[in-house]
């Protein structure tokens, strides 16, 4: 190389080359550097590699290095690390295969032509070796990331798929990644490899930060494995390999956690599988998946629409409808008043049409639907007919109906206050039958109040149903604070920690942004009952929980419900109506969303809550948007 800084002791230094002012000389020097680097054994090689890594992360669409042979250089370095353990253990060369695979992944995440160049340079075989675990889980993580990017493109997918073991390896990694990271890194802080710690924290943190980053990287390892599998799932010929019961049953529980919320993870893969007829059969036959899909469909996160799509496709398929209808219809009925959900316009109307077709196509034998399901669909269709009928009613008659519903609701409030919870629930049901369908704000209150009754009557499924209906009616969608809180507790009663946690966090977030005096802050503090539930569910939904239990880790021992001790008789079940708690801690029933409703509540609390913000979730299976910076 022609130009070396007089202060630099290394001939041919990459950083000096990059300062070359003559473009022609600079390109020639870079080309020579990429060709010669793999054959050199000098100390300090990790420095230019880390510089290239920084450049790839900052400018992944810049073609210069691709044209000059960076992929060929990275391939040679990975092979060198795999074949020459003496070289790998010398100086800081242990970092080089990680950086090399990361560079390949960064340059192939956006540009198909770069991915084609990478395939021609032979990146796939060494990446497969890293995916096999020839080094450690840290290299597996960047290998699966790079292979996932290569498999995304039409022109490069065949080259990835030609390595038959990649799909099987990705499936095994998706199922075992959390346990691998827990047992090989997280569990014993004093046994952690130093280069792992350096890569995780960039040398800026101690044991606690290493542990937090390990959880994030473990989630990425699993989610990127699922993204790679998802690329195969678009091709019907690979579905038999993917749709094994032992794998399918685990998919609903694979989520990014709070550390990686912008990945659809398991539900994204399930949606791709259910989109094809060959995938719907195994999903419908797998125990537990339909219940999990129903829970996700009712949830308030950004992957809700994916679960709804799965349920609708399964219902519309004659070969799977009879297997899922009893579980899927109640969830879909709860969601039938959603207007728009993301890009899904008039989703509620579409759900109604699908269920109506289902009812009309019922036959004999296995296609016969149960009386309970038939009643649910007919009740839903009657409510739609009622809405049309009310549109032709004089306004005076609608006001009379609304006034009558108000009177009955107040009777329900009175019964609730006197301790007659079942009687109150009955009155709220009567008020719902009277209340005009277009009076959405009032119906939100009635459904939410009835959900509170179901909670106190120890009927969590009914509480979830009513709280979900209130959330679907509310504007904005899924943002009614009290219904979120009530549903969070109902999920807690069913030991559904993840669902309870998400609702509890959204509840606190909504309260922090509310102008409703019912939900105003007190000393800028999250109330104890909300904090207690969030902590409990974070423990129970902890990403490493299963691995910790299996390996005897302290974080996984015991029942999460015992962490905070035994609850008193006046426990959180009676504080579900968070804005209706008197100073004595006794729950009272009041109206929800007083600023949004014509039915005013006289009791006002002056509590306010800290804002807890979830990251903006991104739709679709585009992992490119979830790239980490290390």
Automatic annotation (TrEMBL):
UniProt xrefs under Pfam families: ARM_7
Residue ranges, annotated region (Disordered): 555-606
Domain ARM repeat N-terminal plant per the UniProt entry, residue ranges: 7-244
Classification via SUPFAM superfamilies: ARM repeat, TPR-like
Alphabetical list of InterPro entries matching this protein: ARM-like, ARM-type_fold, ARM_7, TPR-like_helical_dom_sf
Highest taxon in the source lineage: Eukaryota
Name recorded for this polypeptide: ARM repeat N-terminal plant domain-containing protein
């Amino acid at each position: 190389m022609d130009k070396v800084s007089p202060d630099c002791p290394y001939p041919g230094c990459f950083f000096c080359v990059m300062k070359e002012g003559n473009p022609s000389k600079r390109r020639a020097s870079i080309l020579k550097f990429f060709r010669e680097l793999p054959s050199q054994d000098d100390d300090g090689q990790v420095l230019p590699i880390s510089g290239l890594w920084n450049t790839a992360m900052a400018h992944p669409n810049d073609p210069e290095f691709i044209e000059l042979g960076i992929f060929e250089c990275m391939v040679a370095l990975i092979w060198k690390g795999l074949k020459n353990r003496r070289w790998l253990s010398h100086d800081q060369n242990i970092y080089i295969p990680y950086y090399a695979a990361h560079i390949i992944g960064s340059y192939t995440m956006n540009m198909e032509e770069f991915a084609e160049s990478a395939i021609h340079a032979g990146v796939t075989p060494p990446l497969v070796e890293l995916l096999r675990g020839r080094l450690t889980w840290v290299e597996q993580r960047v290998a699966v990331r790079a292979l996932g990017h290569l498999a995304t493109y039409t022109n490069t997918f065949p080259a990835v798929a030609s390595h038959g073991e990649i799909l099987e390896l990705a499936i095994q990694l998706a199922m075992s990644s959390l346990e691998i990271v827990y047992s090989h890194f997280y569990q014993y802080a004093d046994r952690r490899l130093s280069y792992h710690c350096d890569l995780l924290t960039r040398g800026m943190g101690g044991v606690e930060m290493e542990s937090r980053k390990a959880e994030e990287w473990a989630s990425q390892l699993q989610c990127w494995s699922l993204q790679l599998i998802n690329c195969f799932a678009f091709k019907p010929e690979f579905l038999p390999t993917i749709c094994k019961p032992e794998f399918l049953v685990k998919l609903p529980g694979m989520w990014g956690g709070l550390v990686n919320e912008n990945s659809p993870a398991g539900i994204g893969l399930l949606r791709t599988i259910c989109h094809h007829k060959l995938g719907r059969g195994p999903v419908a036959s797998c125990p537990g998946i339909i219940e999990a899909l129903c829970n996700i469909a009712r949830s308030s996160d950004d992957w809700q629409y994916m679960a709804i799509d799965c349920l609708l496709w399964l219902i519309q398929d004659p070969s799977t409808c009879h297997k899922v209808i009893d579980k899927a219809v109640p969830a879909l009925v709860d969601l039938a008043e959603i207007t728009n959900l993301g890009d899904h316009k008039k989703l509620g109307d579409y759900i109604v049409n699908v269920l109506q077709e289902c009812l009309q196509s019922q036959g004999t034998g296995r296609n016969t639907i149960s009386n309970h399901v038939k009643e649910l669909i007919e009740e839903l269709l009657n409510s739609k007919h009622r809405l049309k009928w009310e549109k032709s009613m004089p306004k005076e008659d609608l006001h009379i109906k609304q006034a009558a519903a108000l009177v009955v609701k107040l009777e329900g409030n009175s019964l609730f206050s006197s301790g007659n919870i079942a009687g109150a629930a009955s009155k709220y049901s009567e008020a719902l039958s009277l209340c005009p369908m277009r009076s959405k704000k009032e119906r939100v209150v009635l459904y939410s109040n009835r959900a509170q009754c179901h909670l106190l009557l120890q009927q969590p499924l009914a509480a979830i149903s009513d709280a979900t209906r209130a959330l679907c009616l509310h504007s904005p969608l899924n943002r009614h604070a009290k219904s979120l809180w009530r549903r969070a507790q109902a999920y807690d009663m069913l030991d559904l920690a993840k669902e309870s946690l998400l609702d509890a966090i959204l509840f606190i977030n909504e309260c922090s942004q509310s102008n409703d005096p019912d939900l105003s802050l007190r000393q800028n503090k999250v109330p104890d009952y909300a904090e207690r539930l969030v902590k409990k569910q974070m423990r129970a939904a902890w990403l490493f929980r299963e691995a910790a239990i299996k390996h005897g880790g302290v974080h996984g021992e015991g029942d999460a419900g015992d962490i905070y001790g035994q609850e008193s008789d006046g426990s959180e079940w009676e504080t579900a109506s968070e804005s209706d708690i008197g100073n004595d801690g006794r729950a009272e029933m009041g109206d929800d969303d007083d600023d949004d409703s014509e039915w005013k509540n006289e009791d006002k609390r002056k509590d306010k809550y800290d804002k807890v913000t979830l990251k903006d979730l991104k739709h679709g299976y585009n992992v490119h948007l979830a790239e980490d910076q290390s």
